[in-house]
From TrEMBL, chain A:
InterPro entries linked: DUF1806 (IPR014934), YojF_sf (IPR036492)
One Pfam family this sequence matches: DUF1806
Domain of life (superkingdom): Bacteria
Protein name, per record: DUF1806 domain-containing protein
UniProtKB/TrEMBL annotation, chain B:
Species of provenance: Ureibacillus sinduriensis BLB-1 = JCM 15800
Family annotation (Gene3D superfamilies): LmbE-like
InterPro entries: BshB2, GlcNAc_PI_deacetylase-related, LmbE-like_dom_sf
PANTHER family: N-ACETYL-ALPHA-D-GLUCOSAMINYL L-MALATE DEACETYLASE 2-RELATED, N-ACETYLGLUCOSAMINYL-PHOSPHATIDYLINOSITOL DE-N-ACETYLASE-RELATED
Lineage, highest ranks first: Bacteria, Bacillati, Bacillota, Bacilli, Bacillales
Protein name: Deacetylase
One GO MF term attached to the UniProt entry: hydrolase activity, acting on carbon-nitrogen (but not peptide) bonds, in linear amides
One Pfam family this sequence matches: PIG-L
């Protein structure tokens, strides 16, 4: 993955619009967050291999970036995106890596299902 | 304390590297004695957060990296029977409870272990650790008393010693300390930052306490109810 280049990522997001795509969306502060610091409220969400179809995608140029997908009847968005790549299977993998290199958020889009 | 003789050991943990932190020295010592050890690793740590910045992996490429790290760690520990059980990281607790018991029961029926090494229910912090421990304990509880293996359980929640007392088994792994370090290093995607941090502290004249490289501590559980 490389650091976000807004124009290039916007084009990649556009390339999946109006297609049936599988998404992976994840936010986390780590399973150990409240073990290391009991003041931390541990929360996260995870969804994988849900099929959606979006008509509009937008990346906002603030850093870290926000990416929003507008669907016919709803929304998907991720906040904190820093890196991305189009992998060798043609999947658009976006991630938000914190200052220590730990994943805080991930949004991935693929025309084929992700593994289990 | 000296190692209790064992016929067969079954190690059950959910994540590649759980075994290295908690038990690598103990496993190596038993392997040096010729005791067979099977490691059932339930997931590939697919949801590991450490991808680096700049990143060395993606969410999708991490599992294959960790699979190879796990194999390398097992080589260091002398484990030649590694079972990768195919569950997904952070979902173990949501699996059907009876399916989890069956998974453990099949391993016990096949291997007839005299000792199982796993986590301590209620004191193992990560939801996958807890789910793994629950499945193992429940499976053993359902066995006829005379057939039940001993369990060495790893507990490290902040309240463990306060509530459970000191671990009842302390194994001196000093003689295989380097193997334990190598097993940890094999899981580089998970431990490189830690090893780097320790090196830095040593450079500053403040070596991290390495007592955990000399002793491995467990709660021995012989289920009687």
């Amino acid at each position: 993955m490389k650091e976000v280049q807004v124009n290039e990522l916007q084009e990649l997001l556009n390339s999946f619009a109006n297609k049936d795509v599988y998404i992976h969306l994840e936010t986390t502060n780590g399973a150990y967050a409240s073990h290391f610091d009991e003041r931390v409220f541990n929360a996260g969400a995870f969804i994988r291999n849900v099929k959606i179809r979006y008509e509009l995608a937008k990346i906002i140029s603030d850093t870290p970036h926000r990416v929003g997908l507008k669907m016919n009847h709803g929304w998907v968005y991720a906040q904190g995106i820093t890196h991305y790549e189009l992998d060798d299977k043609g999947r658009l993998l976006m991630a938000g890596l914190d200052f220590t290199g730990k994943l805080a958020v991930a949004l991935e889009i693929s025309e084929t299902p992700f593994s289990y | 304390m000296s190692l209790q003789p064992q016929r067969q050991i079954l190690v059950v943990f959910p994540h590649p590297d759980d075994e290295a932190f908690s038990s690598a020295g103990t496993i190596r010592l038993y392997r040096n004695m010729g005791v067979p050890v099977t490691y059932a690793c339930l997931t590939l740590g697919e949801m590991g957060r450490n991808l680096g910045n700049p990143p060395f992996a993606t969410r999708e490429s991490l599992p294959e990296i960790r699979r190879e790290e796990l194999k390398a760690a097992c080589e260091v520990m002398g484990i030649d029977d590694l079972r990768m059980m195919g569950l997904r990281d952070k979902t173990v607790e949501f699996e059907d409870d009876e399916k989890m018991v069956s998974l453990v029961k099949d391993l016990i029926d096949e291997l007839n272990p005299s000792l199982i090494i796993t986590f301590l229910p209620g004191y193992s912090v990560h939801p996958d650790h807890e789910a793994t421990a629950r499945a193992v304990f429940e499976t053993v509880r359902r066995m006829p008393k005379e057939n039940r293996p001993t369990i060495y359980a790893v507990g490290f929640a902040n309240n463990t010693v306060a509530e459970k007392g000191a671990p009842t088994v302390q194994i001196d792994v000093s003689s295989v300390k380097l193997d334990k370090v190598k097993a940890l290093q094999a899981h580089a995607s998970q431990t490189a930052w830690m090893i780097e941090e320790n090196t830095k502290r040593s450079d500053e004249g403040q070596p991290m306490s390495d007592s955990w490289l000399h002793y491995e501590r467990f709660y021995q559980v012989d289920l009687e109810d």
